[in-house]
Fold:
Amino acid sequence: MTPITEVEGRRVALSNLDKVLYPATGFTKGEVLHYYATTAEVLLPHLRDRPVSFLRYPDGPEGQVFFTKNVPPGTPDWVTTAEVPRSEGPARMVLVQDLASLMWAANLVTEFHTPQWVIGAPGLADRLVFDLDPGAPATVVECCEVAVWLRERLAADGIEAYVKTSGAKGLHVLAGVTLVSSERAVEYAKALAVAAEAALPRLVVHRMTRSLRAGKVFVDWSQNAARKTTAAPYTLRARAAECVSAPVTWAEVSTCGDPDQLTFMARELEVRLLEYGDLLEPLLDAGRAGTLP
Structure:
């Protein structure tokens, strides 16, 4: 019988708690749910009001992995949903607004992915993101060098940058911006990616063509398109081990000499949050948003 837990007055079914989702480490579904419950205070503000795309892996990363954008069948009626415009016609998506909704969604076993806009202003970006993806033999160490260049370039335009691990191989450089069309955000981000390639030609490529990416860092500017989503801060990833997309300090980035220095597991986040709090909290402050030139 599926256990029923009450979360903030809502009845939430939590199933298969002993199921091992990460065989490499033995990390179970119960531990996944515990992780989300204990990081909810910092995670929820980054999900709130943003339609969530779920990358689901109910049998672990080695099983079937699939995206769910529409409201999943069986979604409780108390979970907030909203109509979202799409090129092929409007769709209804989930908004994870509270702890009960987070625990219901986490029980589906999912990565959380969000766009760079909120539901009240679809297609108007309030964030910029640069997804730094290393092509082997490059690693996150090379991404760090590119991230520092982007930080300095953004600062020259009066835009403050923050950084997190992707939870996979690379980094995400983020910045809050005053509302701007997603098209303009894409245009600006692409221009910076092109400039990064010109400044660091041995290290950076701005085109997605895989044959160009060996040993270099692909600066993915296209994640700013209204239709695109990026792994949310603090989400677990569908990887061999329970890696987290974890905010990091610029000091950690600038001194990174080994990929292991910027690999964070779910069990490590509690200590990091006690030490640093939410390093991305400034992104939630509209008063600190920069303006695109």
About this structure: The longest strand covers residues 124-134. Residues 21 and 60 are 4 Å apart (CA to CA). Helices lie at 29-47, 99-107, 140-156, 182-199, 250-254, 266-276.
